[in-house]
Design a protein that fits this description.
The chain is built from 4 helices and 9 strands. With 152 residues, it is α+β, with helices and mostly antiparallel strands. It has one domain: Small protein B (Small Protein B, Chain: A, Beta Barrel). It has a 7-stranded antiparallel β-sheet. The chain has a two-stranded antiparallel ribbon with strand order 3-6.
């Protein structure tokens, strides 16, 4: 994902989940959805991906209707098909079924004019893990602050 400008980022995903692996998937979109994405009118909060009938679907992603679209544009929260290789889908399906993992969209961005989504294979964090994450983040901030004061 380096070098690509993110259109939307799911900031809560890395806090609520432990990301074990990431995948890049293409998105099947309508024209008005692409226009809304380029305008940044997308929200990934509470979104997830599922595997149905050997296909990966992105659920609960809100892409706002494009105001200049003819005939109403698109439905904002419709399920959207994701494009992955068959072996990736089979591998993901096995991990999700056996290990109880979930697929969470992390970012949406454009590569060569095509919308891509970065999916994370994730395990939910327990409350004590979340508290540990907060403490670690605070410690890193304090260390960086101390180092910046030391340089001056």
């Amino acid at each position: 994902m380096a070098g690509h400008k993110a259109v939307a980022t799911n900031r809560k995903a890395r806090f609520n989940y432990e990301i074990l692996d990431t995948f890049e998937a293409g998105m099947v979109l309508r024209g008005s959805e692409v226009k809304s994405l380029r305008a940044g009118s997308v929200q990934l909060k509470d979104s997830y991906a599922t595997i149905r009938n050997g296909e990966v679907w992105l659920e609960n992603v809100h892409i706002a209707p494009y105001s200049f679209a003819e005939s109403g544009g698109h439905e904002p929260e419709r399920p959207r098909k994701l494009l992955l290789h068959r072996r990736e889908i089979d591998r993901l399906f096995g991990k999700i079924r056996e290990e109880g993992l979930t697929l969470v969209p992390l970012t949406i961005y454009f590569v060569s004019g095509r919308a891509k989504v970065e999916l994370g294979l994730a395990r939910g964090k327990r409350p004590h893990d979340k508290r540990r994450s907060i403490v670690e983040r605070q410690q890193k901030r304090e260390m960086a602050r101390a180092q910046s004061h030391r340089r001056v």
